[in-house]
Amino acid sequence: MANEITTAMNEDVLRRLGATLASRRHADPAVSYTAKLFAKGPDAILKKIGEESAELIMAAKDGEADHIVYESADLLYHVMVLLTFCGLSIEDVFRELHRREGVSGIEEKNARTAK
User: What 3 state SS string does the chain have?
Assistant: First the structure.
């Protein structure tokens, strides 16, 4: 039961973050970091994803759990900014993860490359 509550709460926080990001889509870039990213466009968002990915890699190499969690949250936030910019949401990612559930990673990758 506790895992179900935790899972629901985790999904809910991602949904709330998605709603917040969507509300910043046309906000004033002078008062919102997210609005500033949206205003700068996809190249700025992709650059931040690259930076956050590199920071996560370095945190993992250092092996500091708190730093790994912090950088993972930064990366997830910026990926969600990109999803929102592209008119997508965490729900789209949830659907894809559910589709992949129980499917071998090798099978899933081969199915993508066969298309």
Answer: CHHHHHHHHHHHHHHHHHHHHHHCCCCCCCCCHHHHHHHHCHHHHHHHHHHHHHHHHHHHHHCCHHHHHHHHHHHHHHHHHHHHHCCCCHHHHHHHHHHHCCCCHHHHHHHHHCC
Q: For residue 19, give both structure tokens.
A: 């709603």
| pLDDT tens sequence for the chain (115 residues) | 556 667 778 889 999 999 999 999 999 999 999 999 999 999 999 999 999 999 999 999 999 999 999 999 999 999 999 999 999 999 999 999 999 988 887 876 777 777 6
